[in-house]
Write a structure and sequence with these properties.
The complex is a heterodimer of chains A (500) and B (170).
Chain A: H1 4-14, H2 17-35, H3 41-48, H4 57-82, H5 91-102, H6 106-140, H7 144-155, H8 166-180, E1 183-184, E2 190-191, H9 205-221, H10 236-246, H11 251-266, H12 271-285, H13 298-322, H14 328-339, H15 346-351, H16 353-381, H17 389-408, H18 411-429, H19 434-458, H20 462-468, H21 470-499
Antiparallel strand pairs in A: 1-2
Helix pairs in contact in A: 1-16, 2-3, 2-4, 2-16, 3-4, 3-14, 4-5, 4-6, 4-13, 4-14, 4-16, 5-6, 5-13, 6-10, 6-11, 6-13, 6-16, 7-19, 7-21, 8-19, 9-17, 9-18, 9-19, 11-12, 11-13, 12-13, 17-18, 20-21
Chain B: H1 3-32, H2 44-71, H3 76-87, H4 93-112, H5 114-128, H6 134-155
Helix pairs in contact in B: 1-2, 4-5, 5-6
Classes of the chains: A mainly alpha (500), B mainly alpha (170).
């Protein structure tokens, strides 16, 4: 529970103009980097880590956490405007954000994204403040069997994709799983690499995502004059504010997505991408307007953005209390803590509680300011879609290729973007849902790795371990009912309609 | 386009797509055949076999859809609407040259570096996509290339490809 004295001390230490300036700078850097395909907030943290060497611990954490916060939202801007998730965490945002742009509603979609990012992040931060220790402890009880079921739960989203039909979705999803499992296994065996050294680490995620989403879309847009006609009824800023206000009409969606985000974020190696995908899926399962999902549903954008930002709270809980980084960003934040001469782990919360509470409080302030900073950057970025495609497409292509190159300084990654662009274009042309391939690509390797670990851990008892471990059993039941209940409810609804 | 020809082309492409996925799966199956430890195939093996089982089902599904649509009494208007919606997915000359020029851009970047090739690729692609204004064709590529160079090479300190022929000269 909250140590009130430490919290008050932390807030008092935080309240300086310098810290507020650092938050604004960090948020701006994070949002801009997050919005560039291929670059993420993690890069911003890595770049600014040396700058924080000479800072006191609290301002250093305030600055880096602000970059992290901004980066999580930034990915949504290009996801909404040009169907390009700035980071993997924004994959689910493209599903409904981009269709809204195509309908001339990009301003509202960005408003929904920035508003739900801020609210989701705020709920995550408050939960972090209240239940940081128990949350981190429960998260640590998640073994490979539980993580395998979480990945399978995420894969069940494929069954609800409407584009192309059920069989084609499964076919495409499994194709994604196969691509995702290329590379060296945890036992050191080569799989699907055909002796290529480049493929030892598997297919890199960012080039694959940029290719499948962005480049394939650009091939489709080549014959169009503009991405979409902008709504002329309202000013862009009015649309954006309308979007921010609209999120409050979906309180249950926000609450559910935040809880999913915080919890999944707390699981080491799960992170914001899985959080947003799971949350999107749950929003769809329990929505009254299921058919609108994938075609520009406000609920879809809210669920995805709320969860990926609230996951920050969960990820920080595991990192601060247990010293376990669940992602590249939290690993670098941990690096910043070590650089201050502190030892990560449970003692950190006892020895430096005021600074830690101050940093968590700065996150809350940062999320409130995100609405302003994110809104301003979105307003500027929103102009993108007014540029004719004959000029815009070449610029985006070069940006995407250079962004992919920059992740590992390998030109091969840029080639992969192109290759996946062509694959994505042909898949979509033939009514195979690209999102199913992406889900397989993201969740396949996680499921594969965790299943292997489960077998190594439990041996011949692996199967029974899934049903005897309490958390695992609970997750199986949730997965089972998560798939079945919406189907039953849908059938009942149809039956009732028929009767009346 | 003739309705039957349109539907047959659509059907053929869908079969090609499914077959390409199947071929990839079979090659993967062949590749993992040499793995001795069954633990390395725990998830992959069932996935491969499910794909192989689903393939004929997809073929049947596509055939049935093709047959149903071919013999359905779809009005000319509905058919024209469907044909229009498929239009943007076609491999038109524009899309084809877009793909070829991008592939060539990547190959040439490897030899001549980012700066030179990007300054040439951008106006070429803009022209392919329909830009006629000479000012746009000159200034937008130069500004974009410089902006990218400043952002990546100078601000983010991520060196952009210099090209095998020009490495060390810049």
């Amino acid at each position: 529970m909250v140590e009130w004295q430490s919290l008050v001390d932390g807030i008092a230490e935080f309240m300086t103009l310098f810290n507020f300036i650092l938050i604004i700078l960090g948020l701006t850097l994070g949002v801009v980097l997050g919005a560039i395909p291929g670059l993420t907030g993690s890069l911003g943290i890595a770049l600014m880590l040396p700058v924080t060497f000479t800072m006191d611990p609290l301002p250093a954490l305030v600055f880096l956490i602000a970059i992290y916060t901004g980066g999580l939202f930034g990915g949504a801007i290009t996801a909404v405007l040009i169907n390009t998730p700035g980071s993997p965490a924004a994959v689910a945002t493209t599903l409904d954000g981009y269709p809204m742009t195509k309908q001339g509603d990009s301003g509202r979609a960005l408003g929904l994204a920035v508003g739900s990012s801020a609210i989701g992040g705020l709920i995550g931060a408050v939960i972090l403040l209240i239940i940081i220790q128990p949350l981190a402890t429960v998260a640590l009880k998640f073994g490979p069997t539980e993580m395998f079921i979480v990945a399978v739960f995420g894969l069940t989203i494929i069954s609800s994709i409407q584009e192309g039909g059920f069989i084609k979705s499964i076919f495409a999803g499994l194709f994604g799983v196969l691509i995702g499992t290329i590379g060296m296994t945890d036992t050191g065996a080569m799989r699907g690499t055909f002796d290529s050294v480049y493929l030892l680490d598997g297919i890199p995620m960012i080039p694959a995502l940029i290719g499948l989403f962005a480049i394939s879309e650009l091939f489709f847009l080549a014959e169009k004059k503009f991405i979409a006609e902008q709504s002329k009824k309202q000013k862009y800023s009015t649309q954006l504010i309308k979007g921010v206000k609209e999120i409050f009409t979906y309180p249950f969606n926000i609450l559910r997505s935040s809880i999913i985000g915080v919890f999944v974020g707390a699981l080491p190696a799960a992170g914001s991408t899985i959080a947003s995908l799971l949350s999107y899926n749950e929003a769809k399962r329990f929505s009254k307007n299921k058919s609108k999902f994938g075609k520009g549903s406000e609920e879809g954008v809210i669920a995805a953005e709320t969860a990926n930002n609230s996951s920050e709270g969960g990820a920080l809980a595991t990192m601060l209390v247990l010293g376990i980084p669940g992602s590249a960003s939290t690993a670098m934040l941990l690096g910043a803590i070590i650089m201050q001469g502190w030892v990560p782990g449970p003692r950190l919360f006892v020895d430096q509680s005021a600074v830690i509470y101050g940093a968590i409080f700065s996150m809350i302030i940062g999320l409130i300011l995100l609405i302003i900073v994110g809104g301003i950057v979105s307003l500027g970025a929103g102009r993108i879609i007014t540029i004719p495609t004959r000029i815009l497409i070449p610029i985006i292509v070069v940006f995407a290729l250079v962004g992919a190159f920059s992740t590992r300084n390998m030109l091969m990654d840029a080639f992969l973007v192109f290759l996946f662009g062509v694959i994505g274009w042909y898949l979509r042309r033939n009514k195979y849902p690209v999102i199913a391939v992406v889900l397989g690509l993201i969740l396949g390797p996680i499921a594969d790795g965790e299943l292997l670990k489960s077998v190594q851990l439990h041996g011949s008892d692996t199967f029974s371990a899934f049903f005897t471990r309490p958390l695992s059993l609970i997750l199986i039941i949730i997965t089972f009912f998560g798939v079945l209940v919406p189907i039953i409810l849908e059938r009942l609804k149809k039956k009732t309609k028929k009767n009346y | 386009m003739n309705k039957f020809r349109f539907l047959f082309t659509q059907f053929s492409h869908r079969i090609i797509m499914a077959t390409l996925i199947l071929l990839f799966t079979l090659v993967y199956l062949y590749d993992i055949g040499s793995l001795k430890d069954s633990q390395d195939k725990l998830l992959v093996s069932p996935v491969i076999w499910i794909i192989i089982i689903l393939y004929p089902i997809i073929l049947f599904q596509e055939w049935r859809e093709f047959k149903d649509k071919s013999y359905s009494k779809q009005s000319e208007e509905d058919f024209a609407e469907e044909e229009d919606s498929e239009e943007s997915a076609k491999l038109t000359k524009k899309v084809f040259f877009f793909m070829v020029s991008t592939f060539a851009y990547l190959i040439l970047t490897n030899y001549f570096g980012f700066l030179i090739v990007t300054v040439l690729y951008l106006p070429l692609l803009m022209w392919i996509l329909g830009t006629k204004s000479k000012l746009t064709l000159i200034f937008v590529p130069i500004i974009t290339t410089i902006a990218l160079f400043i952002l990546f090479d100078i601000v983010l300190e991520i060196p952009l490809p210099q090209g095998l022929f020009l490495e060390g000269m810049m």
